[in-house]
Amino acid sequence: MKLSLNDQTFDFSRPYIMGILNVTPDSFSDGGLFIKKDSAIKHVKQMIKEGADIIDVGGESTRPGAQRISLDEELQRVIPVIKTIREFSDIPISIDTKNACVMSEAVHAGASMINDVNALRGEGALAMAVELAVPVCLMHMQGQPDTMQKAPQYEDVVKEVKTYLQERINVCVKAGIKTSNLIIDPGIGFGKSVQHNLCLLKHLAEFNELGKPLLLGVSRKSMIGALLNNAPADERLYASVALATLAAWMDTGILRVHDVKATNDALTLCQAVKEAK
Ligand code: 9MG
User: 267 CB less than 6 Å from ligand 1?
Assistant: First the structure.
């Protein structure tokens, strides 16, 4: 499996790190720390120094209960940041959005990948991704962020999430997206109970049967808080790194994380064990 991002080839001989940059005032785990452009850029530089392979820039929160924002607001948050990153680095930038117009503006400003928690189901998103011809992460989500955690229901969560992702791959390929441009993600915390999330993590390796690079986001998520006596987001580092390491062990290709240095150290050791004779 190979993925071409901004003239760099990701061959998945090791897991890659996607550093999270939330340019939102209400993001659940960093409290909108990076809403100001200067602090956002400083944080990007730090993540690059610590070993990030991709920067995921998002302007609209996807946390449970999050409200939608206007197109203008989303563009104003993400486009200046993407343009500024491009002035000093060629690191691949992923745009975390459900909106076709934001996808287009972001790619024209220098982003080289789309991260869509809605798996291109939004109005015009599929056609836009075909036109932009950049890699796309298709994530599974049951419901929408404002209501998704109310009563998530599955008979067989692994089977249903896998079937959904296969269906979205088929739709995308039929529409004209190159099969080598697709990445999949089971969407931990998106319309799933703690038990659903745990079951997906236990069976993560089965998602590799779909033949696409696997991306996973568990960093600081509420399931960690729920399992650690309601630990707040800023006390979920060790558990986040533990889950990232487990995921890397099960051949996850890209880890979406807040804490780049800690994750990078853990993944380096995980890789060393994998490669040991
Ligand atoms: C934007 N975003 C928040 N959590 C995420 C996750 O788990 N995966 C992906 N692809 N994007 C996410």
Answer: no
Q: Measured between alpha carbons, how far is 219 from 199 in angstroms, rounded to an integer?
A: 17
Token couple for 200: 């997906």
User: How far is C-alpha 226 from the chain's CA centre?
Assistant: 21
Distance 188 CA to ligand 1 centre (A): 8
Testing ligand 1's pocket by substitution, the residue of 18, 34, 61, 185 carrying the most ligand atoms inside 8 A of its CB is 185
* Average confidence score pLDDT of the chain: 94
Gap between the Cα atoms of 5 and 53, Å rounded: 10
State the pLDDT at residue 271: 98
pLDDT band at 32 (very low <50, low <70, confident <90, very high): low
According to DSSP, residue 156 is labeled: S
Position 28 pLDDT exceeds 60:
no
Ligand 1 within 6 A of CB of 19? no
Ligand 1 pocket member 186 (CB < 6 A): no
Burial bucket for residue 33 (CB in 10 Å: 0-12, 13-18, 19+): middle
Tallying the residues shown for the chain, one arrives at 277
